[in-house]
Write a structure and sequence with these properties.
Elements (H helix, E strand, L loop, with lengths): L3 H18 L4 E10 L2 E10 L5 E3 L2 E12 L8 E2 L2 E9 L2 E5 L2 E5 L5 E3 L5 E5 L5 E10 H7 L17 H16 L5 H13 L1
Parallel strand pairs: 2-5
Antiparallel strand pairs: 1-2, 3-4, 4-11, 6-9, 6-11, 7-8, 7-10
Helix pairs in contact: 3-4
Length: 196
């Protein structure tokens, strides 16, 4: 009766209900999760994104270039109302998404769907993790695709879209790390290119 799929759906509904009641940067929600048939309590946080990239109709994305060592590269279990696109440039990422663990190799793009509980960390804790994370707001995605809520993004490492997405993400990384006057127009065009 309680299959993992049913439990994930119930947990997701509880998360959405809880965060609508408690608006803050990080709201703790001790929720029962299933892991290999065992129940355990774990804090899962709703992350209120602070968008930093201005668009035509307000801020619509957050870009983070990271360079972290070891344990500092690990995030807490969290979710947000935004699509997350990540490119590890050094040190592969281990990603737990809705309880499923997978590895994202260096130089491959990962999409984490909106409202999905996830954890990311560098695979090798003795190495620096370097890369870029782009978080695209639901408002932006709804403005580009009114059916956005019905879509589920999946981007395997061998996808034919990988080379183009990697090139866009690498260019965004260069723009953020070496800004020049009037670079915001280029960043915005790259963000739209990433969406398409």
């Amino acid at each position: 009766f309680f299959t993992p799929k049913v439990i994930r759906a119930v947990v997701k509904i509880i998360f959405l209900w809880y965060t609508e009641l408690k608006r803050c940067n990080l709201c703790a929600a001790g929720i029962r999760r299933v892991c290999k048939g065992r129940f355990y309590m774990q804090d899962i946080y709703y992350e209120q994104i602070q968008y930093s990239e201005p668009g035509i109709n307000g801020d619509f994305a957050m870009i983070v270039c990271y360079d972290l060592m070891g344990i500092k590269s690990e995030t807490v279990p969290h979710w947000h109302k935004a699509l997350e696109v990540t490119l590890p440039l050094e040190n592969s990422l281990l990603v737990t998404e809705d309880g499923n663990l997978r590895e994202v190799p260096e130089g491959k793009v990962l999409c984490i769907n909106s409202r999905t509980v996830h954890i990311t960390k560098g695979k090798d804790k003795t190495r620096y993790s370097r890369g870029i994370v782009v978080v695209l707001s639901e408002e932006l995605l709804f403005s580009l695709c009114p059916d956005f809520e019905q879509l589920w993004f999946s981007l395997p490492p061998d996808s034919p879209a990988q080379p183009e997405l990697v090139a866009v993400m690498e260019e965004l990384y260069r723009c953020k790390m070496h800004p020049t006057p009037y670079i915001q127009g280029r960043i915005n065009s790259l963000l739209y290119q990433l969406c398409y």
